[in-house]
Amino acid sequence: MFVENKGEESFDFQAALHSYFTVSALENLSIAGSFAGKEFLNKMVGDGEMQTEERDVITISEEYDRVYTGVNDPVLQDKGTGKSLSVLNTAGYEDTVLWNPYGNEGMGYNNFVCVESVKFDPVTLAGGASWTGDMALKVGDL
Q1: What is the mean pLDDT of residues 35-46?
Q2: Got the DSSP string for the chain?
């Protein structure tokens, strides 16, 4: 993603790539990364509540909508397929959103997860300046 301010006045923005990945089943999925000790915004509690993650590896067994700040290295591990998928955020994206509408049969919740590469804190882009967010995917075997 490339954002360029062609004007003279600065502006603020946030960025997120809403990537949806097919999985064999949520019970087969784990998401590794630098989650332990990081703060996250749990959007499923009240109007959103900041909490601290204790786990190194995330599993989803409830409706999920969380913004993990300072986590930009998620690796999806699907033991049902024997495959892993690394989300490589090499520039710009500092955070990760994990989302799944657990229990919603109409949305097919059990066969996908949304893993977003995010720049959650607003970026102030001065006139004439630009910002780049780079994300790539790497498939591997478990």
Answers
A1: 98
A2: -EEE--SSS-EEEEEEE--EEE-S-GGGEEEESS-TT-EEEETTSTT-EEEE---SEE---S-EEEEETT----EEEETTTTEEEEEEEEES--EEEEEE-TT-GGGTGGGEEEEEEEEEEEEEE-TT-EEE-EEEEEEEE-
